[in-house]
Amino acid sequence: MIMIRAIVRPEKATDVMAALLDAGFPAVTKVSVHGRGKQRGLKVGDVHYDELPKEMLLIVVPDDAKDYVLRSILSAARTGRDGAFGDGKIFISPVVEVYTVSTGVREFAEQEAVLA
Amino acid sequence: MKEVMAIIRMNMVSRTKQALADAGVSSLTAAIAHGRGQGRVDFRILHGAEQGIEEAIVQLGQGPRLIPKRLLSIVVPDEKVKAVVDTVIRVNRTSQAGDGKIFVLPTFDSVRIRTGETSDTAINEM
User: Fold this and answer.
1) Interface predicted TM-score of the whole assembly (ipTM), two decimals
2) CA of A69, closest CA in chain B: separation in Å?
């Protein structure tokens, strides 16, 4: 399993979540965050915005779904045809165990058993 | 060490914190998050659809609602992971959809800013 953390524009978050639903990945957690990137925030005239509001989407998916989910997120989160500064970043980290609280069951344990 | 990321119900946070402290893990980070799972959570729509109400059946096809949740992030040594996961499940389990998810992520290192200690000494609670 992998966790995909996508930091996207707040106004694009609904688009991305709709795209994920269409792609067959309904489960998403959304956290409001503030941050800056390598452009060091945003400068409009004399006003400098050091931290800009973004939404962080957490999606945990099987390893083999990575490229498919990434494509869905990228196409939904990009502004315009070529994209623009501030469209966000995507980070991917490994997840070693997943549990569903309501059942107490460790998810995907069967798949691992088959692999092992 | 591992990071245990638990997404739980809003009203379960204090009980979870208490239970974790009793289990010997008192440090955690909490954030407010909104999320959706497999989309089986909105009982009004489900109930309405069972009764055959047209509006509810139409809504069934639409996207699931975002539910407010709490995201707890707990970094613990490997040997405490099982205790944390078991505690969170025991406290939060109501056996209904929406109880939450727990993810266990590998963590490479941690540093205590006050002293500069790294690795397991940075997260021990002795």
Assistant:
1) 0.78
2) 16
